[in-house]
Amino acid sequence: MWQTVKNIYHLGIKELRGLLGDWLMLLLIIYSFTLAIYVTANAYPDSLTKAAVAIVDEDNSQLTKRITDALMPPYFMPPVSITLEEIDEGMDSGRFTFVLVFPVNFQKDVLGGNNPEIQLNVDATRMSQAFTGANYIQQIALTEIEKFSKGSGESLAKCVIRNRFNPNLTISWFESVMQLINNITMLAIVLTGAALIRERENGTLEHLLVMPVTEFEIITSKIWSMGVAVLVTAALSVVVVIQGFMHVPIEGSIPLFICGLALHLFAVTSMGIFLACIAQSMPQLGMLLLLVLIPMQMLSGGMTPRESMPETIQIIMNFAPTTHFVQLSQAILYRGAGFDVVWKPFLYLTAIGAALFSFSLARFRKSVA
Q: How confident is the model at residue 145 (pLDDT cuts 50, 70, 90)?
């Protein structure tokens, strides 16, 4: 037993030394847990930011001025006053995303109860802002009209919305953690798979097999060494990049998240060994990675809620480790959940990891037989 532990340890140290000597892999790890997370988190603007608005005010009344003044930064850029003839040219050239047109006698018709209409022209090619911005402008206009028509500064009733866990609906808070999860899964599979294929291509796998080590010791050493490499860099990324540099608030326990991360790495590194046993070269491993990684990322609940997916997909994805890792990561990092809340994902990850390890060991023994 003690000799087995020593063999696993020394073989794992050999893998880590090989990783440290591969500067391309080191560059990939550093990039994946630093710049890739920052770029992805900030690639998509928040729900509405600095939208270009133009105003055609044919009424020039106090009410239209109030509505215009309510379109304030950071959601909108300062409104630009234009004429009706300038609408087509301004929207065709992309200068304006929204053009708001107030008709003649708009304030008079509002006070007279004639239900006048405001025309809102939207450049729908700018999908990231068109839908949300139109709703914002509609709510702003209705609120100002209601206040003005009642002659008081406040409405009789208010609907107060409070967003839990992300008060300002900042997209980068969500995207940064989800990108971290995706990169963890990708690197864990790539590093372990590449480690095994590199042994086969260099001819050192046969050398290991004639040594007094077993197949169990060989794949276990690759799993723990590559898992530790990803675990350490991912933990530093959470603390230094996400929490420190990007100022994303982490509500829960980072040590608890790292424990869940270790179980997830046990599962996905075992999957990497299994894929490497099927593939005969790195290009084949890359193709298999595309077939496995993309569905796991898209259907795990990180991009869209699992409840909105077909029930069959939900049942199938219960066997994927990413599904449970996304659940526990969101619960711990976003909502501050404790172990009493996330014990089920921990249990599922343990069972899935044990099953994947058993499949990988059986496949590895078959491939070297």
A: confident
pLDDT tens readout for residues 199-231: 887 777 777 777 788 889 889 999 999 999 999
- Radius of gyration of the chain from its Cα atoms, rounded to whole angstroms: 28
- CB proximity list for 52: less than 8 A, separation 6 or greater: 76, 77, 80, 95, 96, 97, 98
Give the β-pairing of 119-122 and 98-102. antiparallel
At 54, which helix (H) or strand (E)?
Answer: strand 53-57
Provide long-range contacts, Cβ within 8 A and 24+ apart, for 35-40: 36/179, 36/183, 37/176, 37/179, 37/180, 37/183, 37/237, 37/241, 37/242, 37/246, 38/176, 38/241, 38/245, 38/246, 40/175, 40/176, 40/179
Q: How far apart are CA 269 and CA 48, in angstroms?
A: 40
Look-up of token digits 């109030």: 66
Helix axis angle for 215-236 and 2-20, nearest 10°, is: 50
Rounded CA-CA distance 86/108 in Å is: 26
> Are the CB atoms for 291 and 278 separated by under 8 Å?
no
Q: Where in the chain is the domain with CATH 3.40.1710.10?
A: 53-150
**Closest of 205, 351, 349, 213 to residue 276, by C-alpha:** 205
The CATH number that domain 53-150 falls under is 3.40.1710.10
DSSP, res 308: G
Instruction: Pick the closest to residue 12 from 160, 222, 167 (CA basis).
Output: 222
* DSSP SS3 for 97: coil
Name the pTM for this structure: 0.76
